[in-house]
Amino acid sequence: MNSFWLDSIENKNKFNKLEKDISTDVCIVGAGIFGLTCGYYLTKQGYNVVLLEKEKDIASKTTGHTTAKITSQHNLIYKYLIDSLGESMAKKYLYANQDAIENIYQIINDENIDCDFVRQDSYVYTNNLDELEKIKLENKAVNSLGFKSEFVTSTPLPFNVLGALRFPNQAEFNPIKYAYGLAKCITSNGSSAIDGLVNAGSVGSVSVGDGIVENSPGGASLNLAKGTGEIYTDTLVQNIKKENDEFITSCKDYVVRSKYVILASHYPFIDRLGYYFLKMYQSTSYVIAVDIGDKVFDGMYINSEQPTFSYRFVNGSNEKRLLLVGGADHKTGSKIDLSNAYNILEDEVRKYYPDCKVLYRWNTEDCITLDKIPYIGEFSHFMPNMYIGTGFNKWGMTSSNVAGNIIVDKILGRENEYENVFKATRLHPIKNNVELGNMIKETTNSFVINKFKVPERTSENTKDASKNITERVSDFDKNFSDIENDTGHVFEYNSEKVGIYKDKDGKIFAVKPICTHLGCLLSWNNLDKTWDCPCHGSKFDYMGHQLYNPAIKDLEVENFE
C-alpha cells in the first residue's frame, strides 16, 4: 500500500529520463528532500545543477515514507551529546536543527509553497518509571544549552503519561508537497543572463551570492539570473569517477560531468574511501494512517522506551484529520517474524479508538549512525569536491536542511559554525561498540561469499527460472510441496544458497539470496515480501529487483542450469 503522502497530491510534475550527456557545475545523486534542498540553495547562489533520481518520481522513497516531523527533539539525545562531546558541540547540534526549522519556514514563506506547514509542540513521553528519570535529566541537559524545554506530567494524548519532555514551537508539514515545491523552484530558475560568463558558480571576480558582476566588461555592474536546475528521474547512477578536476557520473548510456558531486542517495552506494558500510546500518519501521473521527489532538509525540510509538495528525481528504502512528522498528534484515508489525500499531490505536479505520499502511528505511550524529560534509579526504549527507537517524526532515546548508557553504568556500559537529570524516570514538563489532563480522564474512557475477535482468530469464526450478523440485532436500504459499525461505542446493518465495497461488520465484552490495546473506521479510540485507539494509523484492541502497544491482535469478 502507498504511503499517505504519495497519494496526497494529484498531477505531480513529471520529469524525463536522462537521455544525453550533460556538463554542469554540481551533480546531485538523489532527488529526495536532501538532494532537492541542496539543489534549491545552489541554484539560488547561481550554480547550475543536475539532480539524478533512480525512481520514476522524486521524493518517493524515504521522503515519501516519513512521519514528517520538523524538530530538534530527537528523542533523548542531548544528555548523551553533552556526555560524549561536551556542552559546546551539543549546543551546536541543537541550534543547527532549530535553525533548520526556521530555514524551512523561510523557504515555504518565500516561495509560497502550500505544504500544510503547522507549528506544533513536540513531546517525548513515558509510562515507565525507569525512563522517567531519564526524561528529567534530558530536560535539565536541554535547559543547560539555553533552550527552554519543559518537563510536564500531562499532555493532549488520549491516555495518561508519567512524564514528558516538551519542546515548544516545533513544526510538521506534508513532505511531498514541500518536495515538489522545491523542485518547481529548482527547474524554473532560468539560465544565466550572460552566456559563458558564469559557469561554475563564480569566475574571477564574479560574485554568485548576490548576483552582481563586480568587474564586468566595460566596468558596469550587471544583475545575473539564478542558476539553472534540471531533474531527471528513472535514471540510475551506476558509477562516479574523477578524472583530473572533473567528476564523471555514469548512468548506463549517458554521463554527467561536473566540478562537484553531492551524494544524496539515502545510504551511499559508493563505499570506497569513505567506509560508511562500517559506520552505519539501516532500520525499518512501519506507519499507519488512521481515521479516528473528530477526536483529534495537538502536538507530535514519541515515547522513550521500547516498543516505540509515534503520533501526529495530517490533513486528509474532505478536511478530515488522520492520525499517523509509527513504530515497530527493527534493524533491517533481522531474522525475526514481522508479520504482526502493522497489527501492533493498530492494536495500540484501538485501545483508545476501537472503531477507528486504518486507511494507509507503509514502511520506511532510516540510516542509523553508530554515534547518533549524521554524516554531513566532505565524503572523504581523498575525494575533494564530493559531498555527502546521510545517517539522519529518523530525523531527516530537519537534518536534511542542516546538511544542505553545510554542504552549500562548503561549495561556496564559506565557514559554517555547525560543520564540525556533523563532519562526515570525523574520527572521534564510536560509542556503539557492540553494533560496530557485529557489522565488521557480517561484512568480513560477505567478502568470502560474494564470488559470482550478477547478470542483467530480463523478463525471459525470470520466466525460465520459475519453469526450471519447478521441473527440478525433487532435487532439493526439502520438497517445495511442503512450503506454505506466500512464504519465503533460504535453502542449500549444490552447496549454494537459494532463496525461494512461493506466492499466494503457489508460483515459485528463485534468486541467489546474496546482496549485490558486499555479498551478505539476505533474510526473508515475511511482511513486506522482500529479501533484506542484515549488513547494510539493502532490500530486494521477491523477484530480486533492487529497492533500497546501497545495492544498485538486482539479485541473480536462480535457474539451476
How would the global form be characterised?
A: globular
Secondary structure tally: strands: 27
CATH C-level name of the domain at 18-64 and 177-190 and 228-278 and 373-426: Alpha Beta
- Unreliable stretches (pLDDT < 50, length at least 5) are 190-225, 444-478
User: Percent of residues in beta strands?
Assistant: 25-35%
| Major sheet attributes | 9 strands, mixed
Q: Which structural class is indicated by helix and strand composition?
A: alpha+beta
Helices and strands in order:
Elements: E1 22-29, H1 33-44, E2 49-52, E3 69-70, H2 78-85, H3 87-111, E4 118-126, H4 129-144, E5 150-152, E6 163-172, H5 175-187, E7 206-207, E8 212-213, E9 222-223, E10 229-232, E11 239-243, E12 246-251, E13 254-263, E14 280-291, E15 300-303, E16 309-315, E17 321-331, H6 341-350, E18 357-369, E19 375-378, E20 386-390, H7 396-412, H8 419-422, H9 433-449, H10 459-471, E21 487-493, E22 496-502, E23 508-511, E24 523-525, E25 530-532, E26 539-541, E27 546-548
Parallel strand pairs: 1-2, 1-13, 2-10, 4-15, 13-20
Antiparallel strand pairs: 3-6, 4-6, 5-6, 7-8, 8-9, 11-12, 12-13, 14-17, 14-18, 15-16, 16-17, 19-20, 21-22, 22-23, 24-25, 25-26, 26-27
Helix pairs in contact: 1-5, 1-7, 2-3, 3-7
